[in-house]
Amino acid sequence: MARVPGQHWFKAWLAAAAFGAAGAVVAADASGTRSDSANSADALTKATEPLLAGIAAEEARNGPFSADLIGLLTSLGLTYQEHGEDALAVTVLDRALYLKRVNEGLFGIDQAALVKRLIESEAALGQKATVDELRTRLLDLARHNRNDERSATIFREAAEREVGEYERYLRGDIPASLTIGSLANSPQAMAAGGVWRARRLYNEAIWGLMANPRENKAELADLEEGLARTYYLEASNRSRYYVGVDDALYGLGLGSYQRRVGYTGVGSNVEAVDYARALIELADWSLLFSRNGTAVKRYAQVYAMLVDQRVSETSMQEFFPTNMPVFLPTFAPPPLEGVVVAGSSDYVDVDFEIGKYGQPRKINIVAVAGRDAAAISKQLATAIGGGRFRPSPVSEGAEYRLRYSLADGSLSPRL
Question: What's domain 5-145's architecture?
Fold first, then answer.
């Protein structure tokens, strides 16, 4: 009987799959886990056999380029991923992507899900160069489909990765390395430029959602905050935040927060609490860049509005808590968050005040319990002293009594 081309591919691929499974069993035997490996191999076989048979049947009926193979291959690839067989998953998902391009066009946004799955497996295999190439392909798909709201998610995820790398650069977590050729291609230089790439990506995401701002107001507001964060991070790398009245970074961030306020106001049933939150964030931004008078005036206006609307005490405490200071910016972690010593009972007690313009003062370490806490206490005092906080709109010199616990790396009110 004549054999169609797809059967050649199927038999070759099946042999590779069998070889991979056998290799896994051999490796497991060497490490003394033969029973577990056998169970895993049995589960994999049971899960994949029906899919393999379906693929073979579809190829026999309609040939190796059948559109109906896309779903079968995708299911098979996901099954391999679930069982940790990423090399096999890449082979299968790559063919599914190829068939999708053949049958549905080169730049259809529906390809994005397959590309993301390929990225997961390539990353698991340690193929960084391939991961970067696939991420570039993903952005290319998004740029060919800017008006599709799914593209905004792709742009946003890419922007957040760039911001993460830029934060690593600011912390000094990316060591200098010997680079052949231009220094612009070094890991440090690439990470340093991430803040600019992130801005473009955030803006691309925003542009894609602007066709329907009413439906996308929550997502647009979040994207504006992400965009403003890039301005803050770049400013944090300067010697001081305040550089004059014409500070471009302050003005750009201010625009983002003003648009956040506008998105909150889209629609007819705007809750006072949501509107207040956006206005307070706008005031926080002004305070961070030492526009103190503007910030204090906005805080007072928001507080008066909340009182007038008779919002709950819970909401009041969310914005202006009396027992826990609000560290600024709110999108950054508080000082020393996550400095944990597992199982430790050590702690540091600290008291301080917050002045009219959010400046910390009268910082006093009142108790240190434990050897590890002694070293942390100096860092805590330094972090608080160099921080900025949301001031109280009703009293100057708000006092706080806090405990820093090394067990969970958290600051909490001290009774």
Answer: Alpha Horseshoe (1.25)
Looking at the chain, which residues constitute the CATH 1.25.40.10 domain(s)? 5-145
For domain 184-319, the question of CATH label 1.25.40 is answered with yes
**What pLDDT does residue 85 have?**
95
pLDDT surpassing 70 at residue 178: no
pLDDT at 31 over 70: no
Name every residue whose Cβ is closer than 8 Å to that of residue 198 and which is 6 or more positions away in sequence. Answer: 159, 160, 162, 163, 166, 226, 230
CATH classification code of 327-413: 3.30.1150
Sequence-ordered list of residues with C-beta below 8 angstroms from that of 387, at least 6 positions apart, any chain: 327, 328, 335, 360
Q: pLDDT (tens digit, 9 = 90+) per residue, 238-268?
A: 876 666 668 899 999 999 999 999 888 644 3
